[in-house]
Amino acid sequence: MTRAxxxxxxxxxxxxxxxxxxxxxxxxxxFSQEEITEQQQERWFEELSGRDNERFFVIEDEEGVSVGTVxxxxxxxxxxxxxYGRMLIDPDHRGKGLALEATLAILRYAFSKLCLxxxxxxxxxxxxxxxxxxxxxxxxxxxxxxxxTAGSGYEVAVxxxxxxxxxxxxxxxT
Length: 174
Ligand SMILES: CC(C)(COP(=O)(O)OP(=O)(O)OC[C@H]1O[C@@H](n2cnc3c(N)ncnc32)[C@H](O)[C@@H]1OP(=O)(O)O)[C@@H](O)C(=O)NCCC(=O)NCCS
Fold this sequence. Notes:
Bound molecules: coenzyme A
CATH class: Alpha Beta
Number of domains: 1
Radius of gyration: 16 Å
Order of helices and strands: EHHHEEEHEHEEH
Number of strands: 7
Oligomer: single chain
CATH topology: Aminopeptidase
Largest sheet: 7 strands, mixed
Strand order of the largest sheet: 1-2-3-4-5-7-6
Distance between the termini: 10 Å
CATH superfamily: Gcn5-related N-acetyltransferase (GNAT)
Structural class: alpha+beta
Number of helices: 6
CATH architecture: 3-Layer(aba) Sandwich
């Protein structure tokens, strides 16, 4: 299986991240679908370093090549919960198991290092690759709702996983 490693985001990652995020096959699956400008991204990067309720990681492959991102945000230690998101793989590196590996790694971090009990996420229900990946890992849908934006609407699934469910998946060899 392809291995994936998580490391903190650096300023020098920003141009590559922007190109992955602005790719049409990526941004259509995010709730904010417009292209990100360099200025918007710089503001976001500055704000990110001041937030203690978010951990943003760049994914590297076995050769140390940066191939994507994952993040935990809305980290709430009192409730033992955090939201998983910003899962994005460089379109040139998809289909190699990198998102699966990176998701397993960030969940282990959430449960073992941050001592959280539940990780949840929101995904458009027609995002087949992402929904399939989450289901394979053991996320369960707890709610569905309709999101309406100007001119279009889509269905969103709220999914969540706890540590025992992750362990079950890992024991079964996913
Ligand atoms: C979703 C995404 C992160 C998957 O990344 P990836 O590295 O290609 O995924 P993996 O290779 O790790 O695939 C793992 C599993 O995901 C599912 N999957 C991935 N791509 C798929 C596809 N094109 N069709 C169906 N299922 C797919 C499968 O279950 C796959 O396991 P399998 O190969 O054993 O069937 C990637 O397509 C992406 O960056 N999409 C745009 C951004 C996005 O949608 N983010 C999620 C927002 S909620």
